Amino acid sequence: MYTAKGQLDRNALIKQYQPLVRRLAHHMMAKLPASVDVDDLIQVGLIGLSDALTRFEASQGVQFETFATQRIRGAMLDELRDNDWMSRGSRKSQKEIEVAMRKLEHKLGRSPAESEIAAELGMSLADYQSLLGKVRGTQLVYLEDMSRGGEEDDTFLDRHVADADADPLNMLRDQRLRQGLIQAIKTLPEREQYIMSMYYEQDMNLKEIAAVLGITESRVCQLHSQSIARLRAKMRSH
Description:
It is a single chain. By secondary structure, the protein is mainly α. It is 66% helix and 0% strand. It contains twelve helices and no strands. Helix 10 (190-201) packs across helix 12 (217-235). The radius of gyration is 20 Å and the shape is elongated. The termini are far apart.
């Protein structure tokens, strides 16, 4: 989209790609704690879009949308890194859930039910489910599990995004890890398997999944967090 002078029409392109910014922000929000404001991500993403318009050169042989997506995501990740969005308390809670799951799996020889996990953690079912909602930023692969680890002074995103040599996508390309993950997903409770499939394979958001399953969006968030925690507990050996 160009002006009469053959230059990119910035205003028209910003308007055209605003839905892309919103889509990227909402998709990222599904993996972040409720404390993160989606509107803040969208505003930062628009700044990334504007930066993409300034830096884009068609001669580089890259489609503008591809280039813009990288700049928008980068701007959002920089904002999250600067604000260290995942607190140490949330990380600690995640690890406690995983430890409880591993202990119960070893004891029971199966995936524990929510009520059993809650009891192992010494809390009510309602409190456990509330905790799952608070740790919605649980990631499938924490690179601290496989590389440096224990560097509490680093921010989450410094450890898991900035280090290109330890990119989660590169780690998932490892065949042994991939096969282990496939097997681990098959052991999830049926409803959690559905959620993982809809979210990661069909690229559905939490609201859409909630509509399919006939439950609330917050409940889907809880089950998603629990599914990731189960997988992380199983994947420790990798």
